[in-house]
Write a structure and sequence with these properties.
CATH superfamily of the largest domain: MutM-like, N-terminal
Radius of gyration: 20 Å
Shape: elongated
Strand order of the largest sheet: 1-6-7-5
Bound molecules: zinc ion
Structural class: alpha+beta
Order of helices and strands: HEHEEEEEEEHHHHHHEE
Number of domains: 2
CATH class of the largest domain: Alpha Beta
């Protein structure tokens, strides 16, 4: 499942179409990605319009076409591509937006992705999305209130809640907890004021770091992060070399360091 930074990076690929005019829209009409949109409306709404903006919020993307907007969620396997202006859709190219100079392609093998069309630039669903972690509206107070509301849940499960931590997925949640030094199974209600401050600050910082790293230059997280070590069996903590632990917490495979992240 693409997390915040991958989504930002994917969306930026379509920046190459900014200012260019849509000449034709090709939709693979029966594809499951159209369960939330009507292909004919997309065609009618986009043809002849200019791509005027590219935005993301967590895992959601919004492409502005003058007074209309196309919402896009990548699901598990969705990808955005830029191809030549006469690009013929391949088997998994469910949407091809032909511009005068190039084509914007939405490719999705497993089709958990979804499209939405609205004849306005700020649709209600977009405005109702929670504030981004990197925004000013993501306050320590809001995080403290949320931890209290979910006080019986493991921290790992809390961080995966998109209503408060939009765009944070499995690996980012593990990275945040490792930076904080909190055990992923620790209950949200056990954090004191100072720990809540650490939790809030590290969550914000990790999202910023991830956006800077992956969202802009396709870089990989450095060896000083948990990320490059967590996938391998026998992977070790980059701090002191302890073998990483693994278990299912909050319904997801979780990696942590028993030395850095004590249960208390
Ligand atoms: Zn460690």
């Amino acid at each position: 499942m693409p997390e915040l930074a991958e989504v930002a990076w994917q969306s930026k690929k379509w920046n190459r179409g900014l200012g260019d005019v849509v000449t034709e829209v090709l939709c693979r009409e029966r594809a499951r990605v159209y369960r939330t949109a009507v292909p004919a409306e997309i065609r009618r709404g986009l043809e002849g319009k200019k791509l005027s903006g590219v935005e993301t919020k967590g895992k959601q993307m919004l492409f502005l076409f003058e007074e209309a907007s196309l919402g896009l969620h990548l699901g598990m396997t969705g990808k955005l591509l830029v191809k030549g202006r006469a690009h013929e859709p391949g088997r998994h190219d469910h949407l091809v937006i032909r511009l005068t100079k190039r084509s914007l392609v939405f490719r999705d093998v497993r089709m958990f992705g979804a499209l939405r069309f609205d004849p306005v630039t700020a649709p209600d669903w977009w405005q109702a999305l929670p504030p981004e972690v990197v925004s000013r509206a993501f306050t320590r107070k809001a995080v403290a209130a949320y931890l209290h509301r979910r006080k019986g849940s493991p921290l790992k499960a809390v961080l995966l809640q998109q209503e408060r931590f939009p765009g944070v997925g499995n690996w980012m949640a593990d990275e945040i907890l490792w930076r904080c030094g909190f055990h992923p199974a620790r209950r949200a209600g056990t954090l004191d004021e100072a720990e809540t401050e650490v939790f809030w600050r590290e969550t914000k910082q990790l999202c910023r770091d991830a956006l800077r790293l992956i969202g802009t230059n396709r870089g990989r997280p450095p060896a000083t992060w948990l990320f490059p070590h967590r996938w391998r069996r026998g992977g070790t903590c980059p701090r002191e070399g302890a073998t990483l632990e693994r278990a299912t917490i909050g319904g997801r495979t979780t990696a942590w360091c028993a030395e850095c992240q004590k249960m208390l």
